[in-house]
Amino acid sequence: MGAKMKSVAAAVGQMGQNDISSLEKEKTYMLNVDGEQVEIRIEDVDIIAEDVPGWSVANKDNLTVALDITITPELQDEGNAREIVNRVQKIRKESGFEVTDKIIVNIEEREALKSAIINFNDYICAEILADIINIQSVIPDGMEIDVNDIVLKISISKK
Description:
By secondary structure, this protein is of the alpha+beta class. It has two domains: 2-68, no CATH class; 73-158. It contains five helices and eight strands, in the order ααββββαβααβββ. A hairpin with a 2-residue loop joins strand 3 (55-60) and strand 4 (63-68). Helix 3 (73-94) runs parallel beside helix 5. The longest helix is centred in the middle third of the chain and has 22 residues, at 73-94. The radius of gyration is 28 Å and the shape is rod-shaped.
């Protein structure tokens, strides 16, 4: 581009989404720089997608995909419920329970997990073969578990 480099760079910086899409599709684009037509080729530029806060964006050729990565309270509860299932299944296995053994679960109350246990109670119970999960303020002789950095005690026994 020689002496026109600054003007060309400024014009490229002013390109809109339609212009960029055209360049990606056609692999070339004509810019008007100081009254003169200048050809820009796809290999002359780096096209960078900037993430919008709360979204993850990826490009390939003329395809752009945006994914909402915001963790809602419902997603947080679901993740916590899955972690509880994982921890209980591990305890079942370590305790030598049979796969079909029904169990009783007593779990220490933690405000951060309470909504997950309530909202996903049916899911948790079905996965761990428990009829009910008892939330208790104190479990003196339970096993300590960690659910997404929330430490609490839990006791499991055969029904």
